[in-house]
Amino acid sequence: MIIKFFSFFFGRINLIVRFICFVCVMANMLVFSVIEDDESQSVTSKKALITGIAGQDAAYLAKHLLDLGYTVIGTHRRTSTDASYYFWRLKELGCYEHPRLSIEVMDITDSISCLNVIRKHSNLNEIYNLAAQSFVKESFNSPTATLDVDGAGPCNLLNAIFQTNKAIRFYQASTSELFGAVKAIPQTELTPFNPRSPYSAAKQYAHSMTVNYRESYGLFACCGILFNHESPLRGEEFVSRKIAQAVVKIKEGTQECLELGNIDAKRDWGFAGDYVKAMHLMLQQDVADEYVIATGTTNTVRYFVEKAFERVGIFIDWEGSAENERALNRDTRAVVVKINPKFYRPAEVDLLIGDSTKAKNALGWEPEVSVEQLINMMVDAEIS
To answer: What domains are there in the chain, each with its CATH number?
Structure first.
């Protein structure tokens, strides 16, 4: 009887122990499930505001953030332009009607407008300021308007963050034009600024104020010093898009000649789709800082023209000099490029080439698209 009793007793103990182990395993699995859900939520619940949502960079950035699971609020100035055209870039990338994208009117030159929108979305994680008067030549014609948008605008955003939620991380779009008449080759984060246009002067003010708000008030505010970045979504007034459009029209016989200004200006051209990824990475760091974003190679406008023509099967020969220089179709001898002094800037920036070693080491960022691939991409997009 004693043996049967102990056998029965220990048998029940064994069942109880097994049951307790089962409960522990299930509880452990539940805990990990909750943790994984929380981690997933922390990624997918991020909310970002992008100013200048109708522009090239904003469209690529919006798509990138949406692909990462963000909720995105895009802002733009009130305009009478038909929305079906105004937001064509977002439509081109297939994200205009995305359920996690909303678009609001906000004027960054109006401090109250900025404050109202950011207060409305006080749970924002990140703000990317991509709104700007970004056409350098136009800044000489409208220096005060350029200062209002490119200089005072970022300050209004920074002040709104300071007053509503200092935990919001802020990205300011600086520019390689800050280096102007360059004092070092290549240009790094330590190269002195030497702006040569109202555009770059306004951007220098915004850059300095971003750093000032970080150092004075502890905001997570950083600047991306981006070198020229192009795409098929570039505005038609920019030389890269102007060239891509013209060579296709010349090939198709709907345009006779392309007119340009300084074709010997050297630029470090990259793909906008690559560069917006660097913007996002900057706001994921532990400490806010400035970063040069560039390919590290430089080419002349002349080179861009030659490669663009080659993409459509036209080879050109240059003749003449200065304002009398022109390019001829090698086969037909027709003039396809002329120099027009009206496209010269009052103060030219002759050479830009960036060193993005810091971004590579700290952010793990590198450009993926070469200038030749970029040119082919832009020309191909213009072919009807």
So the answer is: 45-382 (3.40.50.720)
